[in-house]
Specification:
Elements: E1 3-5, E2 11-15, E3 18-22, E4 44-46, H1 52-55, H2 58-65, E5 68-72, H3 73-80, E6 85-89, E7 94-97, E8 100-106, E9 123-128, E10 133-136, H4 148-152, E11 158-162, H5 171-180, E12 185-189, H6 201-209, E13 214-216
Parallel strand pairs: 3-4, 4-5, 5-6, 10-11, 11-12, 12-13
Antiparallel strand pairs: 1-2, 2-3, 7-8, 8-9, 9-10
Helix pairs in contact: 5-6
The protein binds nickel (II) ion and manganese (II) ion.
Nickel (II) ion binds near residues 49 and 51.
């Protein structure tokens, strides 16, 4: 599994020979200053919601690579006005792309674009093909809607969940989310980028271990070993 972490909620993954990039927030992140956005490849850029810490490098990444932005209708329309290619989804909907099926699922959060434009409702993505199925939660609170994922999608191999608290669920709630989605391998994100979301790494890993779950804390610029 070729999954790489770029800080905050930014990840890339290779699926069926395509590079899928999630929530690019790299150029303003001091902890990611060794990464040059203009060197990054993407065939698709998936945006969970409109907040700056998820979309700030999306335009550059999409235009540099002629990539397609996949997000909710409002976010895709906003980037469409900047002449980025896009595929709009809305909650509960799915579409089969050449790398797999993408379902846009519920998140409990907010969403506004960097210039104040309404960003639609925030979401997450469940993505699957004949090799893998995983959940990228985006920014969200713990929500009972997560129980719908194992009822409506293939069995998850892993999930990327926010664990930093303050703006999203913290790791204790995320460990409950891992139970709701019936997934044992969790990659944490949305932690340590700035003061409000700094976490105790050992306590976070222990919170998951108590529930029989494995929490991986990725490091910026490196492949995630699943
Ligand atoms: Ni957010
Ligand atoms: Mn965020």
């Amino acid at each position: 599994m070729n999954l790489t972490f770029y800080g905050q909620a930014s990840f890339s993954i290779e699926l069926k020979g395509k590079t899928i990039f999630f929530d690019p927030f790299i150029s303003p992140n001091e902890k990611a200053n060794h990464i040059d956005v203009n060197s990054l490849k993407a065939d698709y850029v998936l945006l969970s919601h409109g907040h700056q810490d998820h979309v700030v490098d999306a335009e550059a990444l999409a235009k540099n690579n002629d990539a397609t932005i996949i997000s909710n209708y409002e976010v895709v329309s906003w980037f469409g006005a900047k002449e980025c290619k896009g595929h709009p989804l809305n909650h509960g909907g799915k579409w089969k792309f050449d790398f797999g099926t993408v379902k846009y699922v519920n998140a409990v959060h907010s969403s506004v674009l960097p210039d104040g434009t309404y960003g639609g409702n925030p979401g997450g993505f469940v993505i699957w093909n004949d090799e893998v199925c995983f959940y990228f939660a985006g920014d969200t609170a713990l929500t009972l809607d997560m129980k719908l994922i194992p009822m409506t999608c293939p069995k998850l191999d892993f999930a990327i969940l926010p664990i930093g608290d303050n703006f999203t669920m913290g790791y204790d709630d995320a460990a409950i989310a891992a139970e709701f989605i019936e997934c044992d391998n969790i990659v944490g994100c949305h932690f340590d980028t700035f003061g409000y979301i700094e976490i105790d790494h050992e306590a976070a890993i222990e919170a998951f271990k108590k529930k029989g779950k494995n929490l991986i804390l990725p490091t910026i610029g490196n492949k995630v070993v699943l």
